[in-house]
């Protein structure tokens, strides 16, 4: 006949039981996965080959920077590029709520056919009011179809937005996808996702203010934050194991004390 223990178990004795050792090994596995994820995030937080200072100001051919259908890599946003092509008649469209040195106005945009079946949206210039923008559209539509040389900054698409109900053709975001819906001759057309903000305006428009992008830090602090989060999660796995083991020990102590009292 076994006798009841004279003393309650210690916390160390509870932690050394097979059940809790097995759970500790599981926590070690989970923490190892979290640590690996933290290292993975940290590796991507530090740019090992950042662009050289002033690289965006060196004019490059458009096709050397991005291809049709591709997203523009973050280090290349604002890169100065050059391209040649012809304007597609009737595709000069106006985009509202464009600011030039703090003044609100309009952009006149066009479809520049840079290859046989490839086009890029171009922000051609800025106008202070809609009347001036529409007049520039009329002048640009009188183009003789000759090849034009364009240079400017390549900028990521801003994404489409729902137009106002009273004016379904009004555009307030520079979105290639939105412009494409109004363009002509688009069957089997390859389109560049980003757009080109021209350096020198045409059609009597004002030049678009487009300063050089700020130099990027080689450290992505958001990824650093994520890496720190994974480290915290790894530490929490051990804390959870300790807390569960301690709760089990405290319950055994309470049961022992209740038995003693009875």
What does this structure look like?
This protein is of the alpha/beta class. It folds into two domains: 11-23 and 31-45 and 219-261; 55-198, no CATH class. Helix content is 36%, strand content 21%. The protein has a five-stranded mixed beta barrel with strand order 2-4-5-8-6. Strand 4 (103-115) and strand 5 form a beta hairpin. Helix 2 (18-45) packs antiparallel against helix 6 (221-261). The relative contact order is 0.20.
Features:
2 domains, 6 helices, alpha/beta, 262 residues
Short summary:
Helices cover about 35% and strands about 20% of the residues. The chain is α/β, with parallel strands linked by helices and about 260 residues long.
The radius of gyration is 32 Å
Overall structural class, as computed from helix and strand content, comes to alpha/beta
Number of individual domains? 2
Helix content: 25-40%
Which sheet architecture does the biggest sheet show?
5 strands, mixed, barrel
Span between termini: 20 Å
Spans of 5+ residues with little confidence (pLDDT < 50)? none
pLDDT averaged residue by residue: 87
Structure annotation, total helices: 6
- Can you count the beta strands? 8
Strand order of the largest sheet: 2-4-5-8-6
Shape: elongated
Q: Give the SSE order as H and E letters.
A: HHEHEEEEHEHEEH
Measured by DSSP, the beta-strand proportion falls in: 15-25%
